[in-house]
Amino acid sequence: LKEENATLRSKINKLQIFSETQADKMRKLEKKLEENKIKEEKEAQDLEAMVQHVEQNLQLMTKRAVKAENSATKLKQENALLQVQLKNYKTENEALRLGQSASLAVVKQNADVALQNLLTVITNSRSSIKQLVSGAESLQLVADLLKSIDRISEMSEDGQ
């Protein structure tokens, strides 16, 4: 009976040790689970903040693109008007050559004014075109960011 008691006590001790080991493992796993939950919540918050930032940038880029398009339209209209004026000045210049109209000085002055207007329009057009290209590149960057956010979301979902 003593021997059986000793055997049972030995088994009880082993079971207690095993139970304590399992309890320690369980506590560690629970702690790790809690840490993972906190980490995932922080990542979700960071991702949400990044999405909001990207959306704000997208709105800003859209406004800039609309402004640039409006400016380009205005410059096209101004360019068309100047083309008509240039044509009129050329016609007047031709008439002056044939001796039908005012002095050569007036024609030269009109041509200089038309030239200055054209140079101004060209300069403004180049600037607007650069803005449009810059806006398009920015929009492409935002689109690429949104694609990468989708990939991050998919990776996070796969990890769960």
From TrEMBL:
The organism's place on the tree of life at top rank: Eukaryota
Alphabetically ordered keywords of this record: Coiled coil
InterPro entries, per database record: ENTR1
Stretches assigned to coiled coil: 19-92
One GO BP annotation of this record: positive regulation of protein localization to cilium
Tagged with keyword Cytoplasm: no
Gene Ontology cellular component terms for the protein in this record: centrosome; ciliary basal body; early endosome; midbody; recycling endosome
Keyword Phosphoprotein carried by entry: no
Family named by the database record: Belongs to the ENTR1 family.
UniProt name for this protein: Endosome-associated-trafficking regulator 1
Gene source species: Fregetta grallaria (White-bellied storm-petrel)
Organism phylogeny: Eukaryota, Metazoa, Chordata, Craniata, Vertebrata
